[in-house]
Amino acid sequence: MIRGLDILHLFGLLGSAVFAFSGALEAGRKKMDVFGAIVVALVTALGGGTLRDLLLPGKPVFWVTDPQPVIAATVVAVLTFYTFRPLGTASRRALLIADAAGLAFFTVLGVEKSLACGISPLISVMMGTITGVVGGIIRDILCNTIPMVLQREIYATASLAGGVMYLCLGPLHLIPAERTVIAILTVFLLRLLALRLNLALPKPPEGRDSAEGL
Amino acid sequence: MIRGLDILHLFGLLGSAVFAFSGALEAGRKKMDVFGAIVVALVTALGGGTLRDLLLPGKPVFWVTDPQPVIAATVVAVLTFYTFRPLGTASRRALLIADAAGLAFFTVLGVEKSLACGISPLISVMMGTITGVVGGIIRDILCNTIPMVLQREIYATASLAGGVMYLCLGPLHLIPAERTVIAILTVFLLRLLALRLNLALPKPPEGRDSAEGL
Amino acid sequence: MIRGLDILHLFGLLGSAVFAFSGALEAGRKKMDVFGAIVVALVTALGGGTLRDLLLPGKPVFWVTDPQPVIAATVVAVLTFYTFRPLGTASRRALLIADAAGLAFFTVLGVEKSLACGISPLISVMMGTITGVVGGIIRDILCNTIPMVLQREIYATASLAGGVMYLCLGPLHLIPAERTVIAILTVFLLRLLALRLNLALPKPPEGRDSAEGL
Predict the structure, then answer these.
(1) How far apart are CA C173 and CA C183, in angstroms?
(2) Distance (Å, rounded) from C-alpha B72 to C-alpha B78?
(3) Out of B57, B122, B152, whose CB is closest to C67?
(4) Interchain contact C86–B (C-beta under 8 A)
(5) How far is the CA of C143 from the CAs of A42, A146, C69, in angstroms?
(6) CA distances from C2 to A14, A37, C6, C47, C177 (A)
(7) Residues of C numbered 49-68 whose beta carbons fall under 8 angstroms of chain A's beta carbons: which are they?
(8) Which domain holds residue C188?
(9) What is residue C125's predicted lDDT score, i.e. its pLDDT?
(10) Span of A23-27, A41-45, C74-78 with lowest mean pLDDT
(11) pTM for this one?
(12) Does C156 reach chain A within 8 Å, measured CB to CB?
């Protein structure tokens, strides 16, 4: 039988790996060197969970006492930097898929860890979204691109939907791992669907001053 | 009789509301969607107080255990996004006034909370300024504009003056709420005066290399 | 006899001073006012150590309980702002040297403080690098230049090398101050050497999509 805790730990490492991949990829696209790639990969992989642990009362930051995610992210970053050579739009697509997976893993882990700390459901869902999006935001700021979360696409929305889905599954008494996996898939598939269908949230209403661009 | 604690709580919510307004306004000016507006509103409303609580020893972060400011900021962000349609310079002016009010509320709350933690007056004034300016700095970085605090205007100066005013009022034995309100008005009016009169701190001395712009 | 703790405290103040100098210099180059210079100097001087103390379990943030580094950084910022008027490339060179010194002091202090908290050697070296580079990263983001750490130069690498050197000196049973000084010089000289010889880490392999610039 698979224990819930092992699954959580595994999913945490998986999330770190895919976010590290996305960070190293973006760093490579921006012509950074291998250390730049490692730095960007580490902040992408660790950023969201670090902020979550700082915000949760009395929590040590997860990677400070357990170097596994740091090692995993570094290895993935180096491998990505030296082996991945996509041309044209392929790297952009790989980046978007890895980012969606990281968003999904980290959102659900953030919700679970916050609820386990006795935080209210509303704030726990918010913590999940923080865990999911902050790493990618720092990655994009360091790489000087507009953060994905701020673009007019279903991004934070997918993360929030996954958090709410996790809460809604509570009364169904599923095996913990099932609940986790369903919520992760909710975020991941919603995000991919949004990318595929080019879904976006509605624009701001007309009539605003349109002279100023971004 | 109005109790000091209720006033503080009320002023905290007011500060969150005006900063959320300023964040949603700026997000709308930058053509973000409604979720981008909520994100920017939340970080503007919560950013300064969050950093203050992280820095103060043994403090839980205020909104993690009490969702009220989160709810207030979200509601204000959504209302602002869908109803506020200023043209031309009106939105810029509303933004500056809301930002000045948020700066004022949060500066004084930051000073009070730090002193209550037994922090020295010098660092407490600095904590007040951090509480006041950090939310706006993150808002401006997310919206890709130069942070107001770094522009050559009386901004951090107004915040510092309010903190010093709060300290100076100590020996006068006012009712706590009076002391708070006077210090808040000091920041707010100084900031508005600076905007009105186009006051600025002195430029750096001549002779610097002027080839590089911002 | 010089006690280890006094040396650490002294090096901490020295690190704050050179980073404050680098921050005020960069702010002056960007035509900020004196308060902008103080803000940039403070975040450069305090940023890395603040993040380190937040990440280390149960540590108060160093400057919150001891205003000395704040005062030192502020004084240096004001003096730099009003007296330093380099022309041409001189300010750029002074900035690079001060930044290298700050990187060296803070890296080694970060490693020492983390080891003293019982953190594993691997993560302690990483904490040293965080302490060394984060202040400069925030400085560069606030001043809207590409963070030095992300440019293709030996920067984080010098910091990591100093941290590893500090660990390797452990079994030699030196006087603590000697070990500290040797590790500091390792970072500083490596960084200066890299600047002098224009050393850089290898570029990403060819074949990447080169159409997108930074």
Answers:
(1) 14
(2) 10
(3) B122
(4) yes
(5) 24, 18, 22
(6) 49, 41, 7, 28, 8
(7) 54-57
(8) 4-197
(9) 95
(10) A23-27
(11) 0.82
(12) yes
Residue C90 lies in a domain: yes
Tally A–B CB contacts below 8 A: 77
**HSE-CB of C58 using CA atoms within 13 angstroms:** 5
Could you give the CA distance from residue C66 to residue C71 in angstroms, rounded to a whole number? 10
Please indicate, yes or no, if residue B204 is contained in any of the structural domains: no
The neighbour count for residue B182, using CB atoms within 10 Å, is 17
- B27 vs chain A: nearest CA distance in angstroms? 9
Residue B9 lies in a domain: yes
Contact C156, A35 (CB under 8 A): yes
* Cβ atoms within 10 Å of B163's Cβ, excluding its own: 29
Query: What is the distance between the alpha carbons of residues C49 and B122, in angstroms, rounded to a whole number?
Result: 19
Average pLDDT over chain C, rounded to whole? 84
The number of folded domains in chain C is: 1
* Other CB atoms within 10 A of residue B168 CB: 13
- CA C102 – CA C128 distance, rounded (Å): 12
Asked whether the beta carbons of residue A204 and residue B65 sit closer than 8 angstroms, the reply is no
Q: Is residue C93 in a domain? A: yes
Put simply, the answer to whether A126 touches B35 (Cβ < 8 Å) is no
